[in-house]
Amino acid sequence: MGVDTVVVQSLLPTASQPSPSTVTLEVRSKHVVADGVVSLTLAHPDGVRLPDWTPGAHIDVVLPDGTARQYSLCGDRWDPYSYRIAVLRVPEGRGGSAYVHDQLALGARVGVGGPRNHFPLVPAERYLFIAGGIGITPLLSMLRQAQMTGADWQLLYGGRSRASMAFREELTECHGRRVQVAPQDECGLLDLAAWLSEPAPGTKVYCCGPAPLLAAVERACVGWPPYSLRTERFTAAAADPVRRAPFQVELRRSGQTVTVTRETSVLQAVRQAGVEVLSSCEQGSCGTCLTPVLEGTPDHRDSVLADHERAANDCMLPCVSRSRSARLVLDL
Ligand code: FES
């Protein structure tokens, strides 16, 4: 199947690797860019240059109330002094988006970790970008890059209604006919069959949006060449654990073995043993806790690793992933 979910780059935030930097940035601008979506510009209070990033990257934002969330960078990657993010209000969410919309004011300070990129744009002759709603954010910088490198590309952009679709005017003004805007209340569901029915060698498909859209695109890309499709999910795919019984996790470098029960995550059990592992989302969607696996078979429950990376079973995201085997050995 020509499917490749988000790809992990070489930054492995384990004890043997440097941790992502964290800086304090200031909110320099805040605008409503669609119904329920605000765009924020963040910059260093002293005008210091910010870490570089590549299309598809996200940052961890630690809000003044202590909550941390991940947001894709959607500004100009060649501007070294500011980051732009866009935040969708999620009424049934955990409160981070409501805080950003209702309380985060101009001049407020936030902690920013990263940037990290688990959704990189790989070289290709042609790209087909498919965005659903706020899923447009990581794709914005990708299509600028595709334009800059002279690649052929098109964007299919869906959303509930025109008013809910952020950056719609910016896209159509800059890129004209390369962009097809298809609000659901005018056009119905995205016509994926028309866009994806014929496998196109040399074309990479990048998709970001809600889970039903990703599932539909994955189905439509069955039959495409391997790794043609790359997707980014906002939340980890929920699935029942394969193994319900407790399992043992050996921490090879620290010489300890912990028992993981149904009530605990591997990450919690490891920390209870006094071994620190960096984490951020703790939902299997950011990649921060990526940990090398030396023996055993993980039960991958994250939304970061690509299919071939899962099959290799040499790393896992212990905040959500568990074990298929009675014993796992981690390089911790
Ligand atoms: Fe984000 Fe584990 S902390 S994937």
What does this structure look like?
With 332 residues, this protein is α/β, with parallel strands linked by helices. It folds into three domains: 6-12 and 119-232, Rossmann fold; 22-116, Translation factors (Elongation Factor Tu (Ef-tu), domain 3); 247-330, Ubiquitin-like (UB roll) (Roll), CATH 3.10.20.30. Helix content is 18%, strand content 31%. The chain has a six-stranded parallel sheet, with helices on both faces. Strands 5-4-7-2-3-6 form a six-stranded antiparallel sheet, covered by helices on one side. The radius of gyration is 20 Å and the shape is globular. Bound molecules: FE2/S2 (inorganic) cluster. FE2/S2 (inorganic) cluster (FES) binds next to loops. This is Ferredoxin. InterPro entries: 2Fe-2S_ferredoxin-like_sf, 2Fe-2S_ferredoxin-type, 2Fe2S_fd_BS, Beta-grasp_dom_sf, DmmA-like_N, FAD-bd_FR_type, FNR_nucleotide-bd, MRET.
What does this entry show, briefly?
With 332 residues, the protein is of the alpha/beta class.
